[in-house]
Specification:
By secondary structure, the protein is an alpha+beta fold. Helices cover 17% and strands 45% of the residues.
Amino acid sequence: MKKKLSDCKKACIVKITKLNADSELRQRLISFGIMKDAVVEVLELAPAKSTIEIKVGKMRIALRAQEAELIEVVKI
């Protein structure tokens, strides 16, 4: 079973294996450092606003839940 970034819990550290986004969103994610083999830490989950806050390198980024659904990850 493939794990998605949206499945992760707080403090989970994962490695991105695949971006299933369209080319426009893919470019935006890559510009934030969200790309294949990048290590991501889940900082906060906001179920009410359906956002997920992640840390990539030194950057903190908030993604919409539907964007996090498109990112396949493996736990490290």
